[in-house]
Amino acid sequence: MKDAFGLPQSLLVLGGTSEIALATARRLIARRTRTVWLAGRPSPTLEQSAADLRALGAAVHTVAFDALDPESHEAVLGKVFAEGDVDMVLLAFGVLGDQARDEREPLNAVRVAQTNYTGAVSASLVSAGTLQSQGHGSLVVLSSVAGERARRANFIYGSSKAGLDAFTQGLGDALHGTGVHVMVVRPGFVRSKMTNGLEEAPLATTPEAVATAIEVGLRRRSETVWVPGALRVVMSALRHAPRALFRRLPL
């Protein structure tokens, strides 16, 4: 069960090699979390991530999970939930894609959409249903400021995150009053392997900073978390900028 401050004793990570997810797991293990499941495609990286968390004192298990195989989600995640209550599910998988290539090769664009949106919808609903049956728990979904308004530079990725963000907000409304806490996390540019080689955007952040914001959001039972917080104001202005002006901005 979660403690009085909303921090989980057990954690299921969907996207078990995500740098943000692993930074969050490390932070929560340092506080209270004792059992972690890392779900992702089997790989040496997934196993090493689990070993690193075990060294911090947690019982860590790996689970073979594929975002692109939604038909398997109920069975795969059901095995985890059958082990006992899960206090928190962190949905952290996603792909950035390559905008220029994906525009030329639509099937690649579809893969981005299927991973970031379709797979996430499936995994979220399976997880939310079980958390609701438990009567408690948190579902934390990593969205992105890119979903606030589609930009020419990454509208394929941004549109997939926009869909995920809207879906998660609706899911949170549907679960209000059930004991299940749903939180959307909207980081800006995160310095990570995913963004390695890309030009850094203003107000860039780190996986550790996102992890800190997630912990604070859990304690406050926030519904939406911006990282860094200043992005909330920036994106509010950009969201309402006239389209003709928005096109000319260096974004």
From TrEMBL:
The record's keywords, sorted A to Z, are:
Oxidoreductase
Chain ranges passing through the membrane: none
Q: What molecular functions are annotated in GO for this chain?
A: oxidoreductase activity
Indicate whether Chaperone appears among the record's keywords.
no
Superkingdom, taxonomy of origin? Bacteria
Q: Write down a Pfam family by its short name.
A: adh_short
Q: Which InterPro entries match?
A: NAD(P)-bd_dom_sf, Sc_DH/Rdtase_CS, SDR_fam
Entry annotated with the keyword Oxidoreductase: yes
The similarity comment for this entry is: Belongs to the short-chain dehydrogenases/reductases (SDR) family.
> Which named protein is this?
Short-chain dehydrogenase
Highest lineage ranks of the organism? Bacteria, Bacillati, Actinomycetota, Actinomycetes, Kitasatosporales
